[in-house]
Amino acid sequence: MQPERRKMQCDESVPAQVAEWVAERLPSLAPLWQDGPLSLRRLDDEAGRRQEACAPSAWRSLTFLPGQSADVQLLDGQTLLARSSSGGCRLEVGAGLRLDYWGDFPRIALHLAVIEAIRARGVLMLHASGYIAPAGGGVTAVLGRSGSGKSTHLLKQLAGGAMAVAEDTLWVDMRSGECTSVDRHVRLLPDNVHADTRPSSGREPSPEGIKHLWNIRWHRDMASSPLRLGAIHYLRNFQPYPLASLPAVAQAQYLWEAVGQPLLPAARRSHEQWVASVILGRRVSGDAL
């Protein structure tokens, strides 16, 4: 599989394995790439060490999963350094997006940098499942922490005729409301798969060895029209409720838990505007915050 050139430009120094891994994590939202693609380049180890040695301040450690962490710091408002046990990377955000990396495929550092690159272009990563109801309309996003029942709830909706958009991560363009996902499976504990909602095909152990990966039909496999974010629900005791039914403070808590805190200043401001806009039900400018 070749990386989609509209999304990414790769230097000849980048191994195909790395290029494909990065390309698979870039959601295909057209507005994301209107300022140009992401340029990916591999530096030699000596150049990488020089990058790390020039870091002016203390590193901040971020943990994603047990045993998976990266050190990060901002060089300025548009440049981010990240390093992990197998190497590091430097992200520059300006008129274009440039990502240089060094070492032996530093997945954790690259994962962090790719997310920040996408956020810097006004697209947020919503920790949510998503589906289109049988009657049509926009995408219903269902917020919930890991283990809250998002995947099980998604299967129940599919059994009722809904179309799946996202299992765990929904990418949303904050300007247009267009959304998509790069999820490929539904991840479920074996005990949570019931006969009335069991996917029709495919099951294999997940990489972490606890859940199973199930194949389902995704909306993107059946239609190419742009999707828009519609309702936002949250799960409580495995039941969905409209987010708008909560007080504003509780809505903000759910939304910030779902989108996370960007590292780059401009991305933080755009996320703040989006959260405020969802709660107030109208577009909010930066000056109004």
Task: Characterise the protein shown here.
With 289 residues, the chain is α+β, with helices and mostly antiparallel strands. It folds into 2 domains: 8-121, no CATH class; 124-288, no CATH class. 24% of the residues lie in helices and 33% in strands. It has helices at residues 16-23, 45-53, 107-120, 150-159, 248-259, 265-280, and strands at 8-10, 38-42, 60-65, 68-76, 79-84, 87-93, 97-103, 123-132, 139-143, 163-166, 169-173, 178-180, 186-188, 201-205, 212-215, 227-236, 239-242. The strands form 3 sheets. The protein has a 7-stranded mixed β-sheet, sandwiched between helices. The protein has a 5-stranded mixed β-barrel with strand order 8-9-16-12-11. A hairpin with a 2-residue loop joins β3 and β4 (68-76). α5 packs antiparallel against α6 (265-280). It starts with 7 loop residues before the first strand and ends in a 9-residue tail after the last helix. The model has no long low-confidence stretch (mean pLDDT 84).
| Count of folded domains | 2
Strand content: 25-35%
Distinct helical segment count: 6
Mean pLDDT: 84
Write the layout of secondary structure elements.
Elements: E1 8-10, H1 16-23, E2 38-42, H2 45-53, E3 60-65, E4 68-76, E5 79-84, E6 87-93, E7 97-103, H3 107-120, E8 123-132, E9 139-143, H4 150-159, E10 163-166, E11 169-173, E12 178-180, E13 186-188, E14 201-205, E15 212-215, E16 227-236, E17 239-242, H5 248-259, H6 265-280
Parallel strand pairs: 1-2, 2-7, 9-16
Antiparallel strand pairs: 3-4, 4-5, 5-6, 6-7, 8-9, 8-10, 8-11, 11-12, 12-16, 13-15, 14-15, 16-17
Helix pairs in contact: 5-6
